[in-house]
Amino acid sequence: MRETVEVDGQLFYFGALRGRRAPSITPVDRAHSTAASAHCHSCGGGGRDGLQLCRCVTRAIFRQCLGRYRRAEFEAASPRVCGTQWGIPSVEYRADFVRVCLLALPVGMQKRIFTEHILGRTPCLDLLAAGMLLSQGNFYHEAYRVREKCGRALEAAGLWPIHKYFAQPSRMAAQNDAIHIARMHGPRKHFTESWFDLHRKRVAGKAMAAAAA
Questions:
Q1: Are 43 and 62 part of one and the same domain?
Q2: In sequence order, what DSSP letters do the residues of 6-39 get, joined into one string?
Q3: Average pLDDT of the chain, as a whole number
Q4: Is the pLDDT of residue 111 over 80?
Q5: Could you give the number of structural domains in the chain?
Q6: Are 105 and 114 in contact (CB under 8 A)?
Q7: What's the pLDDT tens digit per position in 120-152?
Q8: Within this chain, do residues 163 and 81 fall inside the same structural domain, yes or no?
Q9: Distance from C-alpha of 182 to C-alpha of 168, rounded to nearest angstrom
């Protein structure tokens, strides 16, 4: 296990990249360290393998997101109001989960494993009997790679940590609110100017009016 040290509230661990020169101290995020496996030989429970997320962390991220995806299927569709618009967070999360994972996977065997084995819960032996040209061991290795790729993509897209996704307002509702406000208050140029620019123009206008008087 790699040695860790805490400096100013931030957790670091000592290690080096394989085959490259790397800084002696690499920062570790607490969310990643909690998702890491304590029995992982690559990160030793630290969460990072060099400067990249460890594979155990990306698989854990995918498992958490997949569990939230399946729980959302049985939740009541309670809308969330954001200004003049509303959205359904559980439905939005399910749609974002599928969209992000499908975009992260190449067309072919990995995408089929995701849609049929992971989402469809079709057993491995049934897929192999249906004509998938893989041995049982290679099938599970491909499934591990699918979980790793999807886990990285889900974190990059903001679907993990899950509580942060549900804490923010509906993105579509916020976008529709911005369009609605722009239509009410005129051209877009009024929104591109900062508060300081508007204040400076207002003060200059008052000064010109006072000088003319």
A1: no
A2: EETTEEEEE---TTS---SEEEE-HHHHHHS-TT
A3: 76
A4: yes
A5: 3
A6: yes
A7: 989 988 888 888 878 889 999 999 999 999 999
A8: yes
A9: 22
Residues 66 and 162 in one domain: yes
Judged against a pLDDT cut of 80, whether residue 26 lies above it is answered with: no
26 and 123 belong to one structural domain: no
What is residue 4's predicted lDDT score, i.e. its pLDDT? 53
How far, in Å, CA of 124 to CA of 132, rounded?
10
| Alpha-carbon gap, residue 211 to 158, rounded angstroms | 54
Q: What is the DSSP letter of 47?
A: S
> CA 92 to CA 97: how far, in whole Å?
8
List the domain range (segments joined by +) for residue 183.
Answer: 174-212
Q: What are the tens digits of pLDDT across the range 161-182? A: 998 888 865 555 555 555 554 5
Identify each DSSP E strand in 33-143 by its residue range: 48-49, 52-53, 80-82, 85-87
Secondary structure string (H, E, C) spanning 122-168:
CCHHHHHHCCCCCCHHHHHHHHHHHHHHHHHHHHHCCCCCHHHHHHC
Assess whether 149 and 122 both reside in one domain: yes
The whole-number pLDDT of residue 175 equals 54
Q: Which of these three, 38, 53, 68, is where a domain ends?
A: 53
Position 9 pLDDT exceeds 60: no
**pLDDT, tens digit, for every residue of 27-68?**
556 787 888 888 888 888 888 777 788 899 999 999 999 999
Task: Note whether 188 and 116 are same-domain residues.
Answer: no
